[in-house]
Amino acid sequence: MTTNLDKKIPLMEVFGPTVQGEGSVIGQQTYFLRFGLCDYKCVMCDSMHAVDPQQVKANAQWLTQRQIFEALYEFRSKQQHSTPWVTFSGGNPAIYDLQQLVDLLKNDGWKIAVETQGTVYHRWLLDCDVITVSPKTPGMGEKLELDKLDLFLGQFAIAGRYRDRLAIKMVVFDQIDLEAASMVFERYVRDAYGISASQFYLSLGNPYPPGTRDARASGVCLECGTPDLVQELVYRYEQLLPDIMQHPTLCRVKFLPQWHVLLWGNKQGV
Amino acid sequence: MTTNLDKKIPLMEVFGPTVQGEGSVIGQQTYFLRFGLCDYKCVMCDSMHAVDPQQVKANAQWLTQRQIFEALYEFRSKQQHSTPWVTFSGGNPAIYDLQQLVDLLKNDGWKIAVETQGTVYHRWLLDCDVITVSPKTPGMGEKLELDKLDLFLGQFAIAGRYRDRLAIKMVVFDQIDLEAASMVFERYVRDAYGISASQFYLSLGNPYPPGTRDARASGVCLECGTPDLVQELVYRYEQLLPDIMQHPTLCRVKFLPQWHVLLWGNKQGV
Question: At A211, which CATH number?
Answer without folding.
Answer: 3.20.20.70
